[in-house]
Design goal:
5 strands, 5 helices, alpha/beta, 40% helix, three-stranded parallel sheet
Length: 118
C-alpha cells in the first residue's frame, strides 16, 4: 500500500486511512499537509476549555499549536511519513514506490480468523 497525504490527516481518520500502523508500505505527504491527533482549533478548545481569554490570545495559541504539532516536519521526524514531497513530484514518487514494491509478497495466515466457531 502506498499513501499520499494531501491535506488533513487527523486522529482516527489518519490511522485507518492507510497509515503506517495499518500496514502501508510507503507514506508520503505534501508540504502543506496537516498530520496530528486533532486540528489546532479543537485541540486548543480541549486544552483550555472555555477559559476566558481575548480572541487574539486564543488565536495565538491555535497558531502555535498549528506550527508545533500539525506540520509534516513533525510527522516525518516521528516516522509517521517516509517523505515530504512537492505536489509536482507526486506521480514520479508513487510510480517509484510501486516499482520498488513490485516484487513484494505478503504472507497472510492460512485461516482468516484465529478464533473459529465451536
Amino acid at each position: 500500500r502506498v499513501c499520499v497525504i494531501l491535506r488533513k490527516a487527523y486522529g482516527g481518520a489518519y490511522i485507518v486511512m492507510a497509515s503506517r500502523g495499518m500496514g502501508s508500505d510507503y507514506v508520503v505527504c505534501w508540504p502543506n499537509a496537516e498530520i496530528a491527533v486533532m486540528g489546532a482549533s479543537g485541540a486548543i478548545g480541549l486544552l483550555y476549555g472555555r477559559k476566558e481569554m481575548p480572541d487574539a490570545d486564543r488565536q495565538q495559541l491555535v497558531d502555535d499549536y498549528q506550527t508545533d504539532y500539525c506540520t509534516p516536519r513533525v510527522a516525518s521526524e516521528r516516522g509517521y511519513v517516509d517523505a515530504v514531497i512537492e505536489p509536482r513530484d507526486t506521480r514520479r514518487v508513487v510510480v517509484g514506490a510501486f516499482e520498488a514494491l513490485r516484487s513484494k509478497r505478503e504472507h497472510l495466515p492460512k485461516r482468516r480468523h484465529a478464533n473459529p466457531p465451536q
